[in-house]
Design goal:
The protein is mainly β and 108 residues long. It has one domain: Immunoglobulin-like (Sandwich), CATH 2.60.40. It is built from two helices and seven strands, in the order βαβββββαβ. The chain has a four-stranded mixed sheet with strand order 1-4-2-7. It has a three-stranded antiparallel sheet with strand order 3-5-6. It starts with a strand and ends with a strand.
Length: 108
């Protein structure tokens, strides 16, 4: 799996608005689909809304991965994820325990 340095900014985008807490959560995001991941949203499972697009102005190409840091100050591991791809497809996955998973992979 290749790492895409540009998307190291994902961690900065999530962490930029909040101070670091002991409950910060890190996981790997991988794109094993056949299309570029052009939008990525993550929200606490208790939220009814998606947070901003963490790939704004960028993308995660097939075969690449990037580290993600969630520094939202919450003491939860349960999150919802949403990915939108360049081919127009969309994936939503709910109530994921990212502490147990340690990562998430988008596939076809």
């Amino acid at each position: 799996m290749k790492k895409l340095p540009l998307l190291g900014a994902i961690a900065l985008l999530i962490a930029a608005q909040t101070p670091a807490y002991a409950d910060d959560l890190e996981f790997m995001l991988a794109n094993e689909s056949s299309a570029d991941l052009v939008e990525f949203n993550i929200s606490s499972a208790s939220s009814d809304d998606w947070e901003e697009n963490l790939l704004e102005g960028g993308y995660l190409a097939p075969g690449y991965e990037s580290g993600v840091l969630i520094a939202d100050g919450l003491s939860t591991c349960i999150y919802d994820l949403r990915g939108v791809f360049a081919d127009g497809s969309e994936v939503e996955d709910f109530n994921l325990n990212l502490c147990d998973l340690g990562g998430y992979t988008f596939t076809d």
